[in-house]
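Workshop exercise sheet. Pairs work together: one partner reads the sequence aloud, the other fills in the structure field after running the prediction. Swap roles for the next sheet.
Pair: D.N. / O.F.
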Amino acid sequence: MTKGAMRDRVASKIGMSGSAELTLLEGWVDEAVEQYLVETKAIVREGVMTMTNAVVDYVIPIANILALSKIWVVPSTGQYTELEQISSSDMLRKRQYTYTGDHPRAYELLGMDLIRVYPTPDGTETMHILYVPTPPALANTDDLTLAGVVLPDHPICEEYVSWKAADWDDDTSSKIGESYQKNWEVGVRKAKKRRNLLDNGWGPARPGGRRRWIPPKPGTDVGW
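Structure field:
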């Protein structure tokens, strides 16, 4: 479905017309595509950057990141380590102690582009980042698949646009967009499940399925 076709379908459904209202709908279509990609991570790219000895804060050198999916570090030995995301408070507590002889095991994300790591890298590592790229701008004649929305999921985006339009229009028949919102949320859950099945059946992590990384006592050289 094209962006213009989705706009017109929702306009007819909600009863919106005029250039100003159609412009609103076009903006909600763009927003629906972005939210779909963030929620489902249907499109993922990998970025790589070299880490520097004793440098613990890094600005991600990748433009137009919509969302991050996973981060891991590969030292010169080639044995990769997936980094555990921790809070700012946890990062501050960890950095109170000297911890040598290991590679980064945890990270804190500030905003969308600043990554702080712990322990301190020795300069032999590369950081690998899986991220959702910002979709390209769509013209009204462009199909949503150009931005990464697979054809079966176009109706999901339409439900998002209908939700925002109904909320704006105070549409009582949909309880001010509530029914469209529920359809959107159900559709996203189904899209996530389908994506997980494509990943060889690997679903989201469950509590207890992954051991939390606990560093050794302060100052310990573990000899890695």
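Discussion prompt: The mean pLDDT is 86. What would you look at next?
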